[in-house]
Amino acid sequence: MQNSVAQQYQTSANLDARIAVHARFSTNPYPWMRWVFDHLTLPPVCRVLELGAGTASLWATNQDRIPAGWDITLSDASPGMLAQARAALSAVAHPFAFEVVDAQAIPYADGAFDAVIANHMLYHVPDLPRVLAEMRRVLKPDGLLMTSTVGARAMAEMWALVEPFRPGLWERVRVLTANFNLENGVAQLAVYFKGIERFDYADGLIVTEVEPLLAYILSAQTLQKQPLSQAERLALQSEIAARITAEGAIHITKVAGLFVARNSIT
After folding, report:
1. What is the bridge-based pairing of β-strands 256-263 and 113-119?
2. Centroid of chain to Cα 258
3. 181-208 b/e (C-beta count within 10 Å ≥ 16 → b)
């Protein structure tokens, strides 16, 4: 799994394909990253660490809202992804530090940060208890953890389209995110954190174009080991087109949200 994740996020191409679908076809007009930032309640002067920062979309989307006194470090296990983050924020006035970091061994002192952020990444880590313990360690007493994830039914209708070509794929997708999802997140966080709150983001997808959805599907980590053949891609493309023609759009369930918690060491 660790090798698959590393390959998946070597560059931002796969992530960009998925972000594009959410940006264009989501039913909630209030952007996901603006909503996430709304829950980041911190003092005007503090230190913030984001693990698995990806393309830094949280900060690019909210650049007008970042307090001048926030000292922000963006980290990722992928140097390529971190380079994309640096480029995405090159025109943002607020300064950022960029570091390649393995979340299982965070290279900072105990109590170094007022907040740690981990968006849609904890289900990827090989040793989740170790990562949670590391996040707690680098947080100050009563420091804030904010982490987002998906629910077990997320994108079910999309994966049903691929099921005829890769039987059992939907179950493998669910296994990939089952390591940390909305259903089991509280129980896992409660071992290390206190005051855990769950917030759900009401949204869905109404997809009216073939190519963006096809690109999303082909970007998936679950298809890396068994990629679709050219004939299968064309057949899937035809199926998506037929569904959109017949129904006007493909409606897809989005189940996502976040947890906010505090360091249990006080």
Report:
1. unpaired
2. 10
3. bbeebeebbeebbeebeeeebebebebe
Q: What's the pLDDT at 8?
A: 43
**220 contacts 226 by C-beta, under 8 angstroms:** no
Neighbour-count burial of 158, counting CB atoms closer than 10 A to its CB (0-12 exposed, 13-18 middle, 19+ buried): buried
pLDDT in tens, 163-210: 999 998 888 888 888 999 999 999 999 999 999 999 999 999 999 999
Please write the tens of the pLDDT for every residue from 68-104: 999 999 999 999 999 999 999 999 999 999 999 999 9
15 has a pLDDT exceeding 90: no
Domains of the chain: 2-153+170-202+255-263 (3.40.50.150)
Sign of the alpha-carbon dihedral angle for 150, 151, 152, 156? negative
> What average pLDDT does this structure show over 112-122?
97
* Residue 10: how many other CB atoms lie within 10 Å: 13
Res. 117: pLDDT tops 80: yes
- Within 8 A by CB and 6+ apart from 209, the residues are 24, 244
The 3-state secondary structure of 42-83 reads CCCCEEEEEECCCCCHHHHHCHHHCCCCEEEEEEECCHHHHH
Encoded tokens for 142: 């009563």
What's the token pair of residue 201? 């983001």
Place of tokens 């959410």: 22
pTM: 0.89
